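Working notes for the structural subgroup meeting. M.R. asked for a predicted model of this chain before we commit to crystallization trials. I am recording the input and output together here so anyone reviewing the notebook later can reproduce the run.

Input as submitted:
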Amino acid sequence: MSDIHIGLNQRENWYQQKAHERYVQAILRYIAAKGKTVRDVVLLGDLFDTWEYASENSVPEPEVFLQECIKANAPLFRPGNDGDFVSVLNAIGGDLWYINGNHDMSIPVGAVNKALNLTGKLIQGNPDPLKNFVYPSSDPNIYAEHGHRFSLMCRPDKAGNTDNGYYPLPLGYYVSRIVGTYCKNILAQTRPPLISRTRGIHR
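Returned structure, recorded in token form:
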């Protein structure tokens, strides 16, 4: 699974709970139902989104962001066997791997485990988010990564000043904040769509 982009459900965020949650839950229920036949589940980057926000909205530090994000999207993270990541973690025969993408490059897997209060089986991944970009499959025929480190706009700025507070964020982060501001302003001028389970989206 890649590029879910779960955020704080602000209007400029790509992921919107009311529109997308049911689809993510359906996939997670399917995986949990397969249970012990599943070797590994790989969350292949951008599970979370710390980029797509208006420029005037500050994005909290990773630990605080995770707490707010999990609270804002509780059905996806609260164990209950009804389409949540914790139930998938406990149901599968293998491991649940969290691989960082560009939109969540500052979030360590350890912080995810801590935010979910996991004490038994833990989500796996390299503890350094800047080195956690490849799924370490034991099968030589499988290679999987998010791919952002090959993009000029999205790869971590490893040459930057580590003391400036913005390291390792690349140029794409700032472009995303500009786009987030634009989207917020446009959406403020329009009526929000009404979402119906049976009739789709209507204005």
